[in-house]
């Protein structure tokens, strides 16, 4: 029988691999398409609300995209998009909405408090923690540089 | 009677007098669609959770196998059941309805083999007369326990497998019945760990255990690789089956003519399933439908069932543990 190391090498050599070109292309196209829709909303809001500040338009666009991501998750469409697009549908803000809406739906069965509320951020939680911690670090560095 | 190192041959006949299979909609469209006893229209089957659906599937498989074998519930001495959920909630919760003694078994996806082997030991020496074996799995229930929420948009790895929604039961009896297969020998498998850590490649994690059990069985029984018409492994998938073939060939056993894998076969070629199906219901349902019916029809005489299991939990993988594999072998034969 093959020993551990030899077998692991055999498996890593022969196991089916992800077709990189195909997955890159589908991620690029779907991810690009989602961003295109986002840009469409930005332009639409800028046209409809000409007096509004640019940052407010951005917030409105984000809210719309989050709503669409969560709604598509609820209708059972987003996981099908994700199975083709991979990172293309995970990276945009719609993917973030999907990562919160999907565990909320899944664990609703264990009740509102210990199911939905407790498990809602099991996937998005690490992203939020990383975001908060890195913004604190960047803020501190920025402050030090400003003092010096 | 013990034979060789790890193989046991029942001294009296143990007859598999009836089997029942129930599968989900995807499996129902698969390769063995015409063999199943029941196919679900959807994954819920009027239940609020997928765990409840799995319990209902187990209950159906146990109930029907007793009913269709023309025995009463009081004739059954024990239910030996298993599944993949924590604390075996599917098989044990299903058994609470029957008021029949119950044993829960766990060898991950090899649980059906463990159930058959333990049942054979229970029936041997005149201890028990009729025992029901039942194992199953449900895609939705397993996915949330071992992986991610169903609606999360992730991309499956090309080496991964799709957990089947299926349950299979078999009624084993010491009472002679004409034209049904018997359990001829059981080999209890060792836990084999070749340090595979990729939970998306369970075929590679389980293949060394399957190779070890098959070779131990053939050596114990002093048989060549051509003795069996078919060797059915549980859920190695397409890649795992190729790996098993390679490992056995290195040991001097060429299984090209007889090696099949239930996971690799359960879906049709048109279904997009990566490496195939997996789960405790995979071999159970394929045996309870296709293999059993083909054996009774006389198209298969000697079959070696080798259900395979990957012994991991979500926590063990995150803690950096590798994935140990296990496989049990059960020889099933038609005696003419």
Key attributes of the depicted protein:
heterodimer; A: 148 residues; mainly alpha; B: 336 residues; alpha/beta; Peroxisomal Thiolase, Chain A, domain 1; six-stranded mixed β-sheet; 10 helices
Protein topology:
The complex is a heterodimer of chains A (148) and B (336).
Chain A: H1 4-14, H2 20-48, H3 54-74, H4 78-85, H5 87-90, H6 93-106, H7 112-119, H8 124-147
Helix pairs in contact in A: 2-3, 3-6, 6-7
Chain B: E1 2-3, E2 7-8, E3 15-23, H1 25-28, E4 38-39, H2 50-68, E5 78-82, H3 89-95, E6 102-104, H4 111-123, E7 130-137, H5 139-146, E8 162-163, E9 166-173, E10 182-187, H6 202-220, E11 230-233, H7 237-250, E12 259-261, H8 262-265, E13 277-278, H9 280-296, E14 302-306, E15 308-310, H10 314-318, E16 325-327, E17 329-333
Parallel strand pairs in B: 3-4, 5-6, 5-7, 8-13, 11-12, 11-14
Antiparallel strand pairs in B: 1-2, 2-10, 3-9, 7-9, 10-17, 14-17, 15-16
